[in-house]
Design goal:
9% strand; coiled coil; Sig_transdc_His_kin_sub3_dim/P; 2 domains; Heat Shock Protein 90; single chain; two-component regulatory system; five-stranded mixed β-sheet; histidine kinase; alpha+beta; rod-shaped; 393 residues; phosphoprotein
Length: 393
Amino acid sequence: MDVSMVWRQWLARHDRVRDALPAVPLIVVATAATAVGDASWHEPRWQEAVWTALSCLPLVVRSRWPLPVALVTLATGLTLMALAPSADRIPGAGLVALYTLAVLGSRRTAWTVGIVAAVAITGVHAGSHTESLVGGAALLRFDFAIAATALGRAVRNRRDHLAEARERAARAESTQEEEARRRVAEERVRIARDLHDVVAHHITLVNAQAGVAHHLMRANPDQAYEALAHIKDNSRAALDELRATVGLLRQIDDAPGTRAPIPRLADLDTLAAGFHASGLRVRVSRTGTPAPQAPATELTAYRIVQEALTNTHKHASATLAAVTLEYGPHTLRVTVTDDGRPGAPAAAGTGHGLIGMRERATAIGGTVTAGPRPEGGFQVVADLPLTLAPATV
């Protein structure tokens, strides 16, 4: 591991040691400065070294109480400047405290204390050396105090920007996760609708054909054999559609060759033939000029017809159902009616089928209405857009 990284981690766990570190070079430099003469080295002036050490002592808690430490160190430094004008030095501990206050405190407090300290340092130096306030040495000390505050604010601004960037990144990641969960939930609902449609449709046909075969097994074995053949075909079709639908949960990509073809409106005749074999005659008619429609519209229309016929076969006492596709300039109207008895409960099931039809239509911007007819039977009407708006897709 990098030595510098280990050192930084150790300092992060020992705040007091980290805060006191700047005092070490300040005391060494101040002590050495008092030993420098005009032509040679001499014994340091220990009194000034002790004052410097005392002014650095509050730095041990500078990160905990930045404002009191700044005031104490500046007061000690100014006192030393006034008592020992011959030293001609800058209060280093006060500059470190100003920097710390600018990093940890508010901007207003940092600049207020920084400007007052700069003026005070300049005034004390000018007064103790009988110099002008705008002299070079006095202005140098003013600049040092302002520079310490400005450097601290720059570090604080950089830290704030980094914190905001991390927060935005975390928020973006959280938003992406929520969006992913929402899409997964929507996909689960869509697959559940498909599974409901497939299972309900084919199991209904299989059940009806099994009843026919059971009834005709002794009286008419040939027709019973034909009913069993229809059961076999519908069972195979149900398994194929279930495999294609559940397979979507296992696929990594959307390669078109790995999925079964999506049902289309052209397959309604095949759908009607399956119901006819189970005892429900279905007529399919088309009016208007057929126009190209979005794949989602075509699939939705097919599933609505499939679910409506399945409900008719399961719950209505009907022998005939009519499916009408009316092509308009911008919409496709799908109407499914049956000839059930007046007042017969045409939708005595759980209601999941009608809910699924409405959800499918709403998902592409369409509507579905359903209810009994006065003359008898049940009717489902769906109005679906031929093309989908960009915001809906």
